[in-house]
Amino acid sequence: MKLNKIVKLASILSRFVEKSTTQKKHVAAIIENGKIQYIRSNAPGVHAEYSSYLSYISYQLKCKNCKYKPYKNIKISKTLLVIRYENGLFKNSKPCKECIEKLRCNVKKIIYSTGDQTNPFICEKLSELENSWQSNLVKKVKDRVYSK
To answer: Torsions phi, psi of 141, nearest 5?
Structure first.
């Protein structure tokens, strides 16, 4: 996908940032044939990329024209676009370690904003994406579990 198309789609997603109820405003969408299919923002405890994936799954399971597919076997050959938008600028929205692990087998490609003005978006195969960063929620939960 060309950069100008990505920027156009990301600017559409930026309008949904206000729906996020968390401090870091992330929005994600499933992109199919260059068009946005499922847009979701993050909420406490649910990341935007995983929320948009779950919306796609629920649509697939309810679709009368589709054959029933077991939850784990639904593969998204589409692209997932994730942005973080604050104060009129795109910020780093690279998916966290947990989202990568949850989506790796089911999502083909991911495009995310970097926060870098010279290279504002990166497109990667999710199967090859690595990140050791964990969200604050996951850190708090792990601290509570391991501190007892």
So the answer is: -65, -45
CA dist., res. 52 & res. 146, Å (int): 31
Rounded to whole angstroms, the Cα distance separating 77 from 64 reads 20
Per-residue pLDDT of 17-54, as tens digits, reads 877 778 888 999 998 888 888 899 888 888 898 888 88
Torsion, Cα of 133, 110, 49, 147 (10° steps): -20
pTM across the whole model? 0.81
CATH architecture assignment, domain 3-147:
3-Layer(aba) Sandwich (3.40)
Q: Which amino acid is at 127?
A: S
Find where tokens 């904003």 sit.
113
| Domains of the chain by residue range | 3-147
